[in-house]
Amino acid sequence: MDADNTAKEQAAQLKKYRAGLLWSLVPRIPFLIRTLVLHILGVSETAQYLDLETHMTVTILRSTLRSSKPQPVAKIQAMTLLDPGVKGKIWISKTASDVPPERGIHEALMGAIRSMSDSEAQEASFKVPEIIPVEAEWTGYRAAAAKDEPLPEMPEEQKYEEMMKECNNATTVLYFHGGAYYLCDPSTHRELTGRLARAMGGRVYSVRYRLAPQNPFPSALLDALVSYFTLLYPPPGSIHEAVSPRDIVLGGDSAGGNLTLALMQTILQLRRQNTKIAWFGMKRAVPLPAGVAALSPWLDIVQSMPSWSTNAKWCYLPGPERFEKEQPPPDDAWPATPPRKHIYVDDALRLHPLVSLQLSRSWESTPPVYVCCGWECLADEAKYLVSKLRSDGATVVFEEFEAMPHAWPVVLPKVAQTERCIEAVAKFITATRKEPEKITSSYTYIKAKTLEETEGDVEKLTPYAEKDVFELAYKKIGRETPLALVSPKL
């Protein structure tokens, strides 16, 4: 009964927030009508690429995120954490990792962070998170359910068992949701993870990692590493059996793409150090996963690359100056104590290679990677990442979706480009297990209205060399680029 009351309260609160959002659009009605008319007449540039519904959705998102007066961080965060409930053709089984008696995984991560820090980060103090139980949702396809049918009332373990009956692919996606590291939840991404599970015939382990600003870096990364080990080496009493690393693909969108790649880079660093981690009474190796899938990954935390400005008209994300010019009203969550400029990370760690992933110096030994982006503010960093991965010897499947905004598979679930993207990710994930040797590097450009595919020129993917990327990032925060970071690697 308590659970039912909580669900009803959350549903009512979510309805209230949505009504408030609609009212906030009233002053923008003239602008929206003008946008509508220009699209119908076909005289706007966007109309050449997008259908009317997509154009208006992106316009409303852009107007809301860029023009609205900032709201208190905790209020906005709370709105995105409301659970709308589970209905339809999806299994959700909620679980939580147990806390190991040893501090091995904590010490291993802190060691990796220190070993990859520059001089400023080495000298800085930052909040060191404790290991906590990390919640997650097992997600799978529920074929026999009606469209609005709720989940049956049964224990979570039984839901998991029913889900597993419908899995015909051993691959597990360890998924991290987007939301700028301070918004959203596995519940906001169920449509995407559910469709992905259906498309690949497998299951998704969607992680409820700790959010900033209350829990800044490296809290989320610690939760990600704990979740990876939970899959590999289930703690006593877990409802799942051990998952082979050959059956695990790391995945995420936006900030979740950042966390996905940060976890991958952490795994690489621990392997470089030949680290074994004490975990529930045993020393455990840190194996490579089968692959990585990053959808519109946010790599450039300080927003230094040019596409943050040049692609603004195609995207809805606010520019880097938005938060700097107008701070949200203070509340219990923000400003942080001690003060910092970035919601996610302490100032001295903004350019740490586990935070700003475009500054990672080596991706050698990375398993196959899928990356996609649109004509979005984050396009430069995604394309540079693809180029960097390839130069370091990784196999990369890259797809660029014409005229699509940031994280369109999440914000535009009905468009054909989303279904095309999910199919591509599912195909890649399945191949990492069944035919990894057949995955080859590629660059595919997908046209907006026709979904016509053309092969892109990888050599012209990015004009930025490693030196350029470092200089842009350091200049953005007013620091001189260390010579060692822009000189050739030994």
- Residue-averaged pLDDT: 92
Please name the fourth-level CATH homologous superfamily of the largest domain.
Alpha/Beta hydrolase fold, catalytic domain
Alpha plus pi helix count: 17
Structural class: alpha/beta
Provide the CATH top-level class of the largest domain. Answer: Alpha Beta
Instruction: Assign the CATH architecture of the largest domain.
Output: 3-Layer(aba) Sandwich
**Percentage of residues in helical conformation:** 25-40%
Order of H and E elements: HHHHEHHEHEHEHEHEEEHHEHEHHEEHH
Could you tell me how far the N terminus lies from the C terminus, measured between alpha carbons in angstroms? 64 Å
**What name is given to the CATH topology of the largest domain?**
Rossmann fold
Strand order of the largest sheet: 1-2-4-3-5-8-9-10-11-12
Unreliable residue runs: none
Q: Into which percentage range does the β-strand content fall?
A: 5-15%
Rg over CA atoms: 22 Å
Largest sheet: 10 strands, mixed
Number of separate structural domains: 2
Summarize the structure.
With 490 residues, this protein is of the alpha/beta class. The longest helix is centred in the first third of the chain and has 23 residues.
What does this structure look like?
- The structure is a single chain.
- The chain folds into two domains: 2-80, no CATH class; 90-486, 3-Layer(aba) Sandwich (Rossmann fold), CATH 3.40.50.
- The protein is 39% helix and 12% strand.
- The protein has 17 helices and twelve strands.
- A ten-stranded mixed sheet has the order 1-2-4-3-5-8-9-10-11-12, sandwiched between helices.
- The chain starts with a helix and ends with a helix.
